[in-house]
Design brief:
about 120 residues; mainly beta; 7-stranded mixed beta sheet; 4-stranded antiparallel beta sheet; 11 strands; about 0% helix
C-alpha cells in the first residue's frame, strides 16, 4: 500500500533552517510528482511546493519563494523540503502528498514551530 512518512519537524527560532523529509513506498516513486502542503491551526491546508517526477521542474507558493527548496532523490524514494529564513508564520504541520492511480495520498504530517 502507498505510504508517505514525513520527518524532520522541530521547533526553531526565527531565521533558522530545517530540512523535512518524506519517505515514500508502495508505488513507483519516480513517475509521480510530489507535493508539500502545510496547515496552520485554524486554517486550510495550503500547497507549499511541487516537484516533477524527475525533479526538473519545481514551483512554490509566493510566501515561501526564495526561502524554501523542494528536491527529490528517486534512488531513495524520498522528497525533501529545505526551509531557510524561517518565520513565525511558517509554523504549521507539514504534509507530503501524491496522486497515485487517481487517488490522493497524505502522510501523517510533521510539526514545524518557529518561535523565539
Amino acid at each position: 500500500q502507498v505510504q508517505l512518512v514525513e520527518s524532520g519537524g522541530d521547533t526553531v527560532q526565527p531565521g533558522g533552517s530545517l530540512r523535512l523529509s518524506c519517505a515514500a513506498s508502495g508505488f513507483t516513486f519516480n513517475i509521480y510528482a510530489m507535493h508539500w502542503y502545510r496547515q496552520a491551526p485554524g486554517k486550510e491546508r495550503d500547497l507549499v511546493a511541487t516537484i516533477s517526477r524527475a525533479g526538473g521542474t519545481t514551483s512554490y507558493a509566493e510566501s515561501v519563494k526564495g526561502r524554501f527548496t523542494i528536491s527529490r532523490d528517486n534512488a531513495k524514494n524520498t522528497v525533501y523540503l529545505q526551509m531557510n529564513s524561517l518565520k513565525p508564520e511558517d509554523t504549521a504541520v507539514y504534509f507530503c502528498y501524491t496522486m497515485y492511480n487517481r487517488r490522493g495520498y497524505w502522510g501523517q504530517g510533521t510539526q514545524v514551530t518557529v518561535s523565539s
